[in-house]
What does this fold into?
Amino acid sequence: MVENRWNAQDFAEFAAEAGEDPAGRALLEQVYASRLIGSDPDLVLHGGGNTSVKVERADLFGAPQEVLHVKGSGHDLARITPAGMPGLRLAPLRALRKLERLEDAQMVSTLRGAMLDASGPYPSIETLLHAFLPHKFVNHSHATAMIALADLPEAEAVIGEIFGGRVGVVPFFKPGFALGRAAADVFDADPEVEGLILLNHGHFAFADDAERAYRRLIEQTGTVEAWLADHRRPAPRRAKAPAPVAAGDVLPALRGAIGAVSARHSGDEDAPMPIIDLRRNAEIDAFLARADLADLARRGIATPDHVIRTKNCPLLLEGGDIAAAVESYAADYTRYFEENAARAPDSGTMLNPAPNVAWIPGLGIAGIGESARAAAIAADLAEQNIRAMAMAEDGGGYRPLDEARLFEMEYWALEQAKLGARSRPEFAGRVVLVTGGAGAIGLATAEAFAARGASVYLVDLSEEALARALERLGAGHDGAAMDITAEGAAERAVAGAVSRFGGLDILVSNAGAAWTGEMAEMDDALLRKSFELNFFAHVAFAQATARVLRAQGRGGDLLFNVSKQAVNPGRGFGAYGLPKAATMFLVKQLALELGAEGIRSNGINADRIRSGLLDDDFIAQRSKARGIDEATYMAGNLLRREVEAHHVAEAFVALAGARRTTAHIMTVDGGNIEASLR
Ligand code: ZN
It folds into this structure.
């Protein structure tokens, strides 16, 4: 349920920042209200919704002019600032209402021309609707309850019953000039209305002071929520609840099948794999247990606003062949495109026909996208969508917009522009698991992949170091703390990456540690301990990763941090060099056995990198023993330059990008002839 979050004291303090300037004050008042609206996911989601305020400002010659400040496109209401609400001269916008029609391109150009600051953010696509209404403060949301209400079979009659004429009803138009004009006509027919409901779209509420305009938005939404709750007749559930399904049994296969469709669609065998954001909670479980689930899956999305991010229908995955289900979805989408594009020749080319949302009874609801962020947006919208669907279907019937008009929205140039430019980073959609991920080399490698669009899953022994590393990486990455030599650790880590991102593409098996001692007196337990970490953990992670890569069927990379010790033994480093030599052989063995499945196996021989393994004390001690200063010791290679963690990271990235290279060991040691491979 939405609630009124207005706080008079917060508001007064916030607006006081503007000082004596009335225009600045009104703008700050609306910024305060906008943030309240933006922070409630049942009012707006992901850049949806917009707000405006009309003020008077002097022009360059000192003459007063009316100015409309409206939310800038791409800005999020929850974090909006005055700079995110560009000002436009109101008079030329109002004058447009006299026109019978206005092309999108003409509208965009007129809005640009009216901007006070030509370098400011571009104003919302719904600016003209704000301009055509007379009120000082105008708020627009896409509330779940309003979406549900608009999808009822007798929506207009129900709105009349609920509001008794206090709220006007506007038929569906794409946002832009036609919608602005239609809304203004409805308003003019009864200027006493305190709000407008835009069928299959959302809600406007307005007033001449900021608090009242906000309160009307909340109250009108709450009234609809209460009506829907009163009229709710819960849907029948299936006789048998869906059997629980494990993420690992479904998501990698789903990911691989979608990756195959994307590769075929783009003609690029290395097209991005999708990230899958899985959601589950009691509400989702209840929805997935509905007897009418398959019917709802075909009925279409609750609001056309979301169609570019979710597509019209979800993929319903319930048992059976996952790849066949994805192929059948893509075939249906292709048919939908071809049928509708035949009627609208300007539609351009077909988008990727793979699903953006999956409903998986027994597991949850999945958002699918080319990045963790895109997948999270699809998942958030899918969650809101099932709430609106259930509210409407149980409150009288769910009747969303027809396919032809959804298509028009999906392939409308101004909507496509919201998805932004199509240049994608090299590792977009790839999931990378890094062991020893919080250490110097591990974190540098994680950062290098993340900077190129990958989603990273870090594994590290230290919980504290892991938390710090994840904070540094920022949103969209994850990890788990564990002792990777423990029984079942590799399985747990890989399962963690699969449930967070849907699968795995690149393993950077990096964790290691050196124990020293001469071989002739080597303690057996110590040697075995070193083998556990420096060899057997690599094997376990390679095996667990290979199982996921095989389930996806789209190839992948196994990358290992070997060591120069594998080819060039150092005195006292036997306990380290022996398992590393075995790991170097492992690189080749895996390359031989997995190559036919497109799975590549490569390694790095690095040397003398400042890290947990080679710390400052150790460097001081070694350089002193050789009678040289620390800098000379660290640069003791053919290039006479210190090798740093980021150099190793770049080498891992280069190997993952070398699509025709396998069974290769790359040295990153500044040049060391004794350790060079023959
Ligand atoms: Zn809207």
Observations:
- The pocket of zinc ion is lined by residues 126, 140, 142, 175, 201-202, 305 (CB under 6 Å).
- The two ends are 69 Å apart (CA to CA).
- The first helix runs from residue 8 to 16.
